[in-house]
Specification:
Length: 387
């Protein structure tokens, strides 16, 4: 037996050609994964992680419990200290994933009566965390700073007039948006927040390893560390491993340890996961992959102009380049055509994005060759002409 309501929802997904299915590993040329630097398959990092475990006498398979019980093994303070130093933050607190970090932060930090203002294209994990919060939440138009300031001013007035206790405004954005690849003007966002005494939170999941003088992320590239209340950095994108961290003050870390349920009530990461995080950060300081990735991004954009495709793409300087192709059926057909030629480019369908905003999402990597980039865009050009 299966509930009728759930069955109807699945049938509706099938009718809209939007049914999600788990894929299998393939040997296609990769233009879809988040492994921007190729670290996930880096043999040197793999071996360095093992050596790090041996050096610290940590040949253990698991953490044995949550961090507040038995799982806060001795690698945690070592790696968190390294992360705080690298990202120029007072403290760092490691979570099991970016999803756990966002759920844990937004469900516990904003309080009843506070206001959360979030970019309308914010990641689903942040939306889920906001839903679990007791704060009021309102979206502002994507990367629209005038709308953001208007909303802050409106809710600042409401806060000051209606409550005796001071309420806080939290502003949430991403330094690189995962479905568009674009970025807000973070300097102006930070200035607006400072002007109105709002707390700024920035998700840097798709910026670390790509932006920054040492590839630390966009916030550090712009020297804005002291202007941001909390940064979320993840290790499953350019860094090619697993986990996430929230960067902020010592007080924020202490608060999250006491009130963030996704940290408190889950088994901690294994020593091997922590050792891999250590190894990828060491590799990040030594690799030339980030420089090659930046060159590939520039080459991709030049090829867009050459193929006269730029008007179909969202403006982006990141590793995520998106071609808007309206309609689930059409974007899936074009993706399948490109796949048949040996290239893995994923279609992003509604309801993941709004109807009419379906797209092909090209993820660029340091290991993509210029010949591969040229060929995949030639295939796209031909497929669009054939439609």
């Amino acid at each position: 037996m299966f509930p009728d309501k759930l069955h109807r929802k699945l049938e509706n997904r099938k009718a809209e050609n939007a049914l999600r299915q788990l894929g299998a590993e393939n040997q296609l040329i990769d233009f879809s994964s988040n492994d921007y630097l190729g670290f996930s398959k880096n043999e040197h990092i793999f071996k360095a992680s093992h050596d790090f475990l041996k050096t610290h006498d940590m040949l253990h398979n698991g953490a044995t419990g949550s961090r507040l019980l038995s799982g806060n093994h001795k690698l945690y303070p070592i790696i968190e200290k390294e992360l705080a130093a690298f990202h120029k933050s007072e403290s760092a607190l490691i979570f099991n994933s970016g999803y756990d970090a966002n759920i844990g932060f937004f469900s516990s930090v904003p309080q009843r009566g506070d206001v959360i203002l979030f970019d309308e294209y914010i990641h689903a994990s942040i939306r889920d965390g906001i839903t679990m919060s007791h704060a009021k939440s309102y979206k502002f138009k994507h990367n629209d700073l005038a709308d953001l300031e208007k909303q802050i001013a409106r809710h600042s007035d409401a806060v000051s007039e209606s409550q005796k206790e001071k309420q806080n405004i939290y502003v949430v954005t991403e330094s690189v948006f995962s479905m568009d690849g674009d970025s807000p003007d973070v300097k102006i966002v930070a200035a607006i927040c400072k002007k109105h005494q709002a707390f700024l939170i920035v998700d840097e999941a798709h910026a670390v390893g790509v932006f920054g003088n040492q590839y630390e992320g966009l916030i550090q590239e712009l020297d804005l560390e002291s202007n941001v209340f909390a940064r979320i950095v993840t290790f499953g994108k350019a860094l090619g491993c697993h986990g996430a961290a929230i960067l902020g003050s010592d007080n924020l870390k202490q608060y999250l340890v006491n009130f963030s349920r996704s940290l408190i009530y889950t088994t901690a990461l294994s020593p091997h996961s922590l050792a891999t995080i250590h190894s990828v950060y060491k590799a990040l300081a030594e690799t030339k992959s980030s420089q090659v990735l930046r060159q590939n991004i520039q080459f991709f954009k030049a090829e867009l102009n050459k193929n006269k495709l730029q008007h179909l793409f969202i403006e982006s300087t990141s590793a995520i380049q998106c071609c808007i192709i309206s309609g689930n059926d059409k974007v899936k057909r074009i993706a399948n055509h490109i796949r048949d030629k040996g290239f893995d480019v994923k279609p992003i369908l509604s309801p993941t994005v709004s109807k009419g905003q379906e797209r092909l999402r090209f993820c660029l990597h340091a290991y993509n060759s210029e010949a591969e980039i040229s060929e995949v865009l030639n295939l796209l050009t031909k497929a669009l002409k054939d439609e």
